Amino acid sequence: MFMFEKEQTVLDFNGYKLGGQPGEYPRALGASIFYNKHETVIDDHTGKIDKAKAEALWNRCLELYDTTGHWYFCQIIGEYPEAFESYIDWFCGIDDQFPFLMDSSAPEALAHACKYVTDAGVADRAVYNSINGSIGPENIEALKNSDVNAAIVLAFNPGDPTVRGREKVLAEGGVAGQEKSMIGIAEECGITRPILDTAATPLGLGSGGSFREILACKAIHGLPTGGAYHNMTVSWTWLKRWRKSGILDRYKDAGVLLEQMGHHHFGGVEGIRQAAWSSADIGCNIMAATLGADLIMFGPIENCEATATAMAFTDIVLAETLRELGGDIKAEIHPINKLV
User: Fold this and answer.
1) Alpha carbons 46 and 83: distance in angstroms, whole number
2) Which CATH architecture has domain 10-237+282-329?
3) d(CA 9, CA 267)
4) In the beta sheet, which residues pair with residue 16?
5) Does this model's pTM top 0.70?
6) CB neighbours of 56 closer than 8 A, spacing ≥ 6?
7) CA angle 176, 181, 183 (to 5 degrees)
């Protein structure tokens, strides 16, 4: 474990700090909600949701914040302009402190969201996700004309997943369909709070570069860094296949497996399958945090408990190491002060 020689930028989100040396501040956690086929969504076009169910999920994150000290970005996923309005209204109606990510695969929906949060007076809490090689002129203009000044800046190079390739798209430009670098586009759009995303890529297709880029981003740019490393688990074809049937395919009777492994401990067949999945899912986030990632976008909000305990463990180790290296914990609220 280590400290970076380069001075580290710390960004402020309504009093919550992101960045710094590993161990100075707790990891921030990004919880996805309203994703495709999410149980809270009634109509993904209009944004009609089961508000009570959605609020109960968010309250779990708030309770965990009180317990561990890790604060959250609510990662709002919307594919239609009207839905974004509904989701943002809902979140700002129940929470007046934490920031939220505006995430979508539909450029027109994201552009609309930029205007909407500006008109609604909540742009200071909004984070555009993301500035990447596919961003078009319409969205660049939408960001420029908005009050949004925070964005995820993606280091994804489809032609070169190495650290060198990621740094080229991030800082040099001329790749990924853009003349300017991603950091250059962010500056053009008035982004003063950039969060570098190391672009999690599947195993076998540059996953090592995704992790090594954390070190590069922090050491070269000194900016808050992170990513959605759980996507590596989601895209692991073998794990999906094994989770579905491979765990049990050696046994004619699943009861034999449960008897041998202890069904009470594992929670039955589904418990065993979930353990196989979650171990890799949690592990990839621990790897990222240990390498210095400041933001862990862990995916479905339902996974908040497992992520919180894993990150609390990691942050305590990082904080102890920081002290040994002569650094100081700067966060008043930190897992090492709450859980040790």
Assistant:
1) 5
2) Alpha-Beta Barrel (3.20)
3) 44
4) 13
5) yes
6) none
7) 130
The whole-angstrom separation of Cα 134 and Cα 150 is 18
Mean pLDDT, consecutive 10-residue segments, the chain of 340 residues? Answer: 94 98 98 97 98 98 98 98 98 98 98 98 98 97 98 97 97 92 98 98 96 98 98 90 67 53 55 76 97 98 96 98 97 96
8 Å CB contact between 29 and 72: yes
What's the one-letter identity of residue 70?
H
Structural Rg of the chain based on CA atoms: 20
Distance CA 50, CA 40 (A): 5
- The answer to whether the CB of 207 falls within 8 A of the CB of 200 is yes
> Residue 108 forms beta bridges with which residues?
none
Question: The tokens of 72 are what?
Answer: 């959250």
Q: In this structure, what token pair is assigned to residue 189? A: 């759009």
DSSP codes, 295-310? EEEEEEGGGHHHHHHH
Instruction: Please give the structure tokens belonging to residue 338.
Output: 């709450």
CA distances from 217 to 30, 171, 292, 319 (A): 19, 10, 10, 21
User: How far is the C-alpha of 279 from the C-alpha of 291, rounded, in Å?
Assistant: 18
How far apart CA 9 and CA 223 sit, in angstroms, is 5
pLDDT tens, 234-290? Answer: 999 988 888 776 665 554 455 555 555 554 455 566 666 677 778 899 999 999 999
Would you kindly state where each structural domain of the chain is located, as residue ranges? Answer: 10-237+282-329
